[in-house]
Write a structure and sequence with these properties.
- This protein is of the alpha/beta class.
- The chain has a single domain, classed as Response regulator (Rossmann fold, 3-Layer(aba) Sandwich).
- It is built from 4 helices and 4 strands.
- A 4-stranded parallel sheet has the order 2-1-3-4, with helices on both faces.
- α1 links the parallel β1 and β2.
- The two termini are about 15 Å apart.
Length: about 100
């Protein structure tokens, strides 16, 4: 399995980002990826970026600033709308 690291972001940095992390782990495992995640709130993104080597950021709350890695709005994925399209985007980024 290929290991990837994803920063998940929600308003509080706990509930939605944890749910998003688990859903990403389950969905991407089917494609041979072992997903490691860190969960933060929008204010914690810049600090996490300094401390971690992430492949992408998946967010459900707007994040401040721009970053050198892909950022994807994951609201639809988390709520069950456009799940396949979101996973296709993630897989395209990881290739």
């Amino acid at each position: 399995m290929k290991k990837i690291k994803i920063l998940t972001v929600c308003g509080s940095g706990t509930v939605s980002s944890s749910m998003l992390s688990e859903k990403l782990k389950d969905s991407l495992a089917e494609y041979g990826y072992k997903v490691v995640t860190d969960e933060v709130n929008p204010g914690g993104v810049s600090g996490a970026m300094v401390a971690g080597d992430f492949d992408l950021i998946a967010f459900t709350s707007p994040i401040p600033g721009t970053y050198d890695i892909p950022t994807l709005n994951a609201v639809g994925f988390l709520t069950g709308f456009a799940e396949e399209e979101f996973i296709e985007e993630v897989l395209a980024i990881l290739k």
